[in-house]
Amino acid sequence: MSPAIPLSVLDLAPIAAGSTPGDALRNSLDLAQHAERLGYRRHWVAEHHNMPGIASAATAVVAGYLAGGTTTIRIGAGGIMLPNHSPLVIAEQFGTLESLYPGRIDLGLGRAPGTDRLTARALRRDPQAPDEFPHDVQSLQALFAPAQPGQPIRAVPGAGLEVPLWILGSSTFGARLAALLGLPYAFASHFAPQDLQAALDLYRREFRPSAQLSQPYAMAGLNVFAADTDDEARRLFTTPQQSFTNRFRGIAGAYPPPIDDIEAYWAPAEKAQVSAMLACSVVGSPATVRDGIEQFVVRTGVDEIMAVAAIHDHAARLRSYEILAGSGS
Q1: Rounded distance between C-alpha atoms, residue 218 and residue 199, angstroms
Q2: Integer Cα distance of 314 and 322 in angstroms
Q3: CA distances (Å), origin 176, targets 188, 193, 305
Q4: 7-220+300-325 has which fold?
Q5: Contact (Cβ atoms closer than 8 angstroms) between residue 49 and residue 115
Q6: What is the sign, positive or negative, of the torsion defined by CA atoms of 192, 304, 13, 143?
Q7: Among candidates 83, 100, 114, 93, which has minimal Cα distance to 12?
Q8: Please, which residues have CB within 8 angstroms of residue 90's CB and are 6 or more apart in sequence?
């Protein structure tokens, strides 16, 4: 199986039940090195806070760790939740990464806080900060642009490095902003698929060329759980099914091991909610995954797929990405 479409990795540095954040971060590096060998285009980590199952809260630090252990694959944030930070701090952080690993750093930007309200307050940002997201993105662009004579505030490092920016989104808001600014767009369809097609259509329709991008470029998140058989893949997929069910129940925790019978775990209403959130998923054997990827690309017309695989067992996770890349079919 050799999908013509570029494939990338979205990694939440999942903390599996019975393991530690340190284990999760070391597994993330192992996965990035594995993905690099398999020819994946990029490996992104995402900013989340106060979530016991996710170890990538200090996203720039994690990105530096992954970039330092790889040589060719692009490393980035998918994304930095910009309302949590000042644009200057992010410009300095990612300017530092670009200085250390030139030509390999991406910066995806999200508008959501990536956490609950209480934690958002603990991050010490203004509650109205999400409303400033478009302005903050433009401020970040200016900080990465070449410094002008007399410019009072510069990102050092950062100025002149022009780190590629992406807009992330799960609604038409981000699509419209990405189109207006002429930036590539990544849609979070791996957990919020409802507005995927509407957002992609709007982005392509309203796109304005920019210095960074001459034509629209859209990437979509897709849960891909691949194994040697359909039954084994479906069993692995019970980990995120349980995890999302637990969130609806108000239970926070590490990623649970797979179970044999998900129907015995969730109630019908929970099944409906979780299944809707995970509608953009391809689960199965190499042949099933190949067909599912092809159908998704035909349906959406995306330019790149960012595969998500929150698999409890690290070896099975590596195998899933191997099958997706085509090396294990």
Answers
A1: 10
A2: 12
A3: 15, 17, 20
A4: TIM Barrel (3.20.20)
A5: yes
A6: negative
A7: 114
A8: 60, 80, 82, 107, 140
Q: How confident is the model at residue 88 (pLDDT cuts 50, 70, 90)?
A: very high
**In angstroms, rounded to a whole number, what is the distance separating the alpha carbons of residues 97 and 164?**
12
How many other C-beta atoms lie within 10 A of the C-beta of residue 148?
10
pTM of the model: 0.94
Place of tokens 């989104």: 169
- As a residue count, the chain comes to 329
pLDDT in tens, 95-115: 999 999 999 999 999 998 666
**Domain coordinates in residue numbering, the chain:** 7-220+300-325
Q: Using an 8 Å Cβ cutoff, are 188 and 169 in contact? A: yes
CB-based contacts of 320, cutoff 8 Å, min separation 6: 224, 225, 226, 227, 233, 236, 309, 311
Q: What is the DSSP letter of 51?
A: -
